[in-house]
Amino acid sequence: MTAPGRRSSTFTRLLRHGFTDPSAAERLLDSVELAHVRDDPVLLEALGATADPDLALHGLVRLLEAQPAPTARRELLDTVIAAKPLRDRLLGVLGASAALADHLARHPSDWHALVMYEPRDLHPGVEEFERGLAEAADPVALRVAYRRCLLSIAARDVCGTTDLAQTAAELADLATATLRAALAIARAAAPDDAALCRLAVIAMGKCGGHELNYVSDVDVIFVGEAAEGADEGKAVRAATKLASHLMRICSETTVEGSIWPVDANLRPEGRNGPLVRTLSSHLAYYQRWAKTWEFQALLKARPVAGDIELGEEYVAALEPLVWKAAERDNFVTDVQKMRRRVVENIPVAEIERELKLGPGGLRDVEFAVQLLQLVHGRADVSLRSGTTLKALQALAAGGYVGRSDAVQLDDAYRFLRSMEHRIQLYRLRRTHLVPEDEADLRRLGRSLGLRADPVAELTREWKRHTSVVRRLHEKLFYRPLLDAVAQLAPGDSRLSPEAARERLVALGYADPAAALRHLEALASGVTRKAAIQRTLLPVLLGWFADSADPDAGLLNFRKVSDALGKTPWYLRLLRDEGAAAENLARVLSAGRLAPDLLMRAPEAVALLGDGAAGGLEPRDRAALEQEILAAVGRADGAVQAVTFARGVRRRELFRTAAADIVGSYGTESQPVEADQGALVDRVGGAVSDLTAATLSGTLRAVVRDGWGDTLPTRFAVIGMGRFGGHELGYGSDADVLFVHEPRDGVDEREASQAANKVVSEMRRLLQISSADPPLLIDADLRPEGKSGPLVRTLNSYEAYYRRWSLGWESQALLRAEPVAGDEELGGRFIELIDPLRYPAAGLGDDAAREIRRLKARMESERMPRGADPKLHTKLGPGGLSDVEWTVQLIQMRHGAWVAGLRTTRTRAALAAARTAGLLSAEDAGTLDEAWVLATRVRNAVMLVRGRAGDTFPSDARELGAVGRYLGYGPGHVGDMLDDYRRTARRARGVVDELFYGA
After folding, report:
1. Element (H, E) at 725
2. pLDDT at 683 over 50
3. How far, in Å, are 836, 845, 850, 995 from residue 853 at the CA level?
4. Which of 185-199, 381-395, 458-472, 709-723 has the lowest mean pLDDT?
5. For residue 907, what pLDDT is reported?
6. Alpha carbon distance 578, 668 (integer Å)
């Protein structure tokens, strides 16, 4: 017996063997099933060799408990102890897969599949798997047989009998056998349909490429033809029934779960197209309508089930089209768009954990390899493999990829795929996310042979391999598409490769190899475009290097040139208009927002010039409304009209962002804007005017589409918050109220329905997914908030404000300003609310206390968890909220008799308060400086990151870009943060005195 407080020797041994819960393990070892072998060193040693000893032991006990009789239990245990091959396979699987442990507990005799291997079982193929599934006559039996076969694959995998490529091939072969078995079941259920048609199942994706995951959609395309003498229409319908049944057999959930989804969405027209087509119909579609990505997908097409002869005819017919895909117009642009679209669809919170789609992930390798195949496979048939690793080897052998690059990519791909396999194997669930839980990471690391410090080693190796992929992916993604690596052209830019790398490093480029490739692509050749760009490149390099992200600037410049390089006006712009090239360089290297807006419609680059088409000065609201309303009048329906309005908004957002960046960075012809407040006012005014014009055009389009020239009710949109204050940022929603008044003779119910329909349609049209950024309308500041009606009549507003209005609502109305719709109605709304926001008797003490109490509560409750309050530009001390609430308190107290305070603009109200002697010039200056700085930081974050944020970025390069925008050079990020804290701290002191009365 172990003395109290002392650990048993078994406890210590379990710790040494890798158990994380020795106490639980001791209890399991003391169970009846294992009592007589609990101290067997062979068993403990084998358990300790698994990915998760605790999981393996628990699974073993469950399997023993599930045995139907004591003799069976004894047979299993004796075999485990005596036979090392079974011991390693069984415990290896139990320690890596809770899902397969569940299967063994439900089917306790299936462990016999692991007892011994015949030589032919070491690397089984389709034929062997078909034998394993042969007795499955229904979907449930097929699932059980599938899991039994999967058990043997997993055993070979975790024991190292097969490598990654062999395991993936076996999984694809098992999928092939399963599709054949499922089709046989479907045919048996509908023999008349089977007799009418020939049906071929074409595997696509990873199954077609012979590189399947443990859990993955199995992508297929179905090809059908009529059997001899059968009607084609009836045959296609029969084939469709068989194909649909096959998909259900594999995909539907039964008492034994599902196998995997069969996905036929890669077929012509995707989900909207027929499930089964004839060969001639397939061929006609690909000849006329197919997109680049569809030919890329066909690289992996492989007939696997049904009428194999028909499947081979399908592949043979489409193969010539696949290898001509690289000759299509816009091939490079199409492929780059596909890659960007994949990345953009990843949730921000998951992008760093995404093994497949994240930066440096599996898709990067697969994309690069497939693109090289499409480019070079036209002439070199050795490259035409559907398997990624085989294709990569062929590319290296043919000299299309450097051998060392290919070796590194091969290693990285194998490691990342192995991670993916082990993650999926644990629960047999389809996922590509690296887990966050330490226990899961530990199991994952140990399963890959990382035993010293599994979590740290796994993280290090994972990051190292993704870094390799990210670096090499750029190299492979761009250079080969140009068909060769050209030497830099003669002239100033002619450098040896080594000298060019050294120069790029000295200029601040983080990836000189990739930067050199972009330069070679831009400057090579004898075209007019290349000649002009050769003269610009040395200067452009310096401008890019003056930014926080030179690599992004150069890459963005290449993208713009690819899109517009054949456009004569673009070449003239770069050559003849002195400011255009430098403005473009500043804009492309300052962050994500401006290049993103530009890439949606590259012709907007013309705005950066100083000719008639150019000019970065924001257009006034009248001009914007005139352009948008004229287009609405010409448009064929509201959708087309609002699409144009959103296009204008995107163009003008780019103009505003570009002017902001150029004014913040400065150029040779235009120094840095000294008045930071002027920059803020320019952005806020431009974006607010643009939003108002967009709403006006949308309102006109909706009314015109639904009611003609006249809506049954007068309708106005009231801007609120930053919108009403002319202080919108790049990522701001449009805060509004909607007010209407039935026209003479119109029933109020009819008027209300019309007004609500207008609002609903406006919101829908402004958020339709398109190339243009959506405009979100937020009406939460309306009476009763989200619980209240979206639209009220003027009388309803009057009744509510008279009886129920709260102090915070009067405060919110300080920013109310009509922005669209009926001007006279908007004006009467302002007349209605003026007494509320500027009380004739000033603000009472009780009301002032309530505002202070609400502000204090907001500070404590709304600060995001984990955020540094001192660096939070909105809710932190001395931030936007502090300054705005202080100014608004002054407005409500004195606005009734100080005309200058009756404004929706924060800075104008602050200046009026100073002029009226309501605060000192010093305090006013302190508050103004803090508000301008906080607003600038928010604008900078949006420009740099492409998404809104209220605090400084944590990423070093993004933080450096924010600093550069604010005028801080490299290495001075710390100074920027210190200056912000100092400015905010001083402002908070003024707020404490003026707002809280400290």
Report:
1. none
2. yes
3. 20, 12, 5, 11
4. 458-472
5. 95
6. 10
The upper half-sphere exposure of residue 727, i.e. CA atoms within 13 Å in the direction of its Cβ, equals 22
Q: What is the C-alpha to C-alpha distance for residues 39 and 850, in angstroms, rounded to an integer?
A: 72
CB-CB contact of 238 with 196 (8 Å): yes
Residues in the chain: 998
Token readout for 571 is: 């070449």
pLDDT value of position 337? 53
Top pLDDT among 285 and 955 is at: 285
| Dihedral sign computed on CA atoms, order 120, 122, 126, 129 | positive
Of the candidate ranges 5-19, 136-150, 329-343, 435-449, the one whose mean pLDDT is the lowest: 329-343
pLDDT of residue 141: 96
C-alpha distance from residue 337 to each of 293, 333, 355, 778, 854 (Å): 10, 6, 20, 31, 48
Residue 99 CB contacts under 8 Å (≥ 6 apart), including other chains: 425, 426, 427, 428, 429
Q: Which long-range contacts (CB under 8 A, 24 or more apart) does 17-21 make?
A: 17/44, 17/45, 17/47, 17/48, 17/53, 18/48, 18/53, 18/446, 18/451, 19/47, 19/48, 19/53, 19/54, 19/57, 20/53, 20/54, 20/439, 20/442, 21/54
Q: Tell me how far CA of residue 833 lies from CA of 365, 788, 842, in angstroms.
A: 61, 18, 15
Instruction: For the beta carbon of residue 681, count every other beta carbon within 10 angstroms.
Output: 18
Query: How far is the CA of 796 from the CAs of 516, 699, 711, 801, in angstroms?
Result: 66, 22, 19, 9
User: Taking a C-beta distance cutoff of 8 angstroms, is the pair 724, 933 a contact?
Assistant: no
- Cα separation of the two ends of the chain: 69
* CA-to-CA dists, residue 375 to 324, 380, 525, angstroms: 9, 10, 19
CA–CA–CA angle 316, 322, 323 (5° rounding): 100
Q: How distant is the alpha carbon of residue 302 from its chain centre?
A: 31
- Could you identify the residue written with the tokens 């077929």? 267
Could you report the per-residue pLDDT of 454-500, keeping only the tens digit for each? 999 999 999 999 988 876 764 453 332 222 223 333 332 233 455 44
Mean local confidence (pLDDT), 780-788 = 88
pLDDT at residue 24 in the model: 92
pLDDT score recorded for residue 830: 96
For residues 441 and 458, the answer to whether their CB atoms sit within 8 Å is yes
**Structure token pair of residue 758:** 């207008």
- The share of the chain scoring above pLDDT 70, in percent, equals 90
3-state DSSP of 883-926:
HHHHHHHHHHHHCCCCHHHCCCCHHHHHHHHHHCCCCCHHHHHH
873's tokens: 């530009």
Tens digits of per-residue pLDDT, 55-100?
999 999 999 999 999 899 999 999 999 888 899 999 999 999 999 9
Sequence-ordered list of residues with C-beta below 8 angstroms from that of 737, at least 6 positions apart, any chain = 717, 718, 720, 779, 781, 782, 816
Neighbours of 827 (CB within 10 A): 12
Cβ pair 731, 742 in contact under 8 A:
no
| 3-state per-residue secondary structure call for 529-583 | HHHHHHHHHHHHHHHHHCCCCHHHHHHHHHHHHHHHCCCHHHHHHHHHCHHHHHH
Read off the tokens for 256: 């034994």
Give the DSSP H or E segment for 198.
strand 197-203
SS3 118: coil
Name the burial class of residue 865, with classes exposed (0-12), middle (13-18) and buried (19+) by CB atoms within 10 angstroms of its CB: exposed
What's the CA gap between 638 and 223, in Å, rounded? 41
pLDDT of residue 502: 45
Mean pLDDT of the chain: 87
User: Per-residue pLDDT tens for 886-920?
Assistant: 999 999 999 999 999 999 999 999 999 999 999 99
Q: Is 669 helix (H, G, I), strand (E, B) or coil?
A: coil
* Exposure class string for 388-425: b at 16+ Cβ within 10 A, else e: bbbbbbbbbeeebbeeebbebbbebbbbbbbbbbbbbb
CA atoms of 706 and 225, how far apart (whole Å): 48
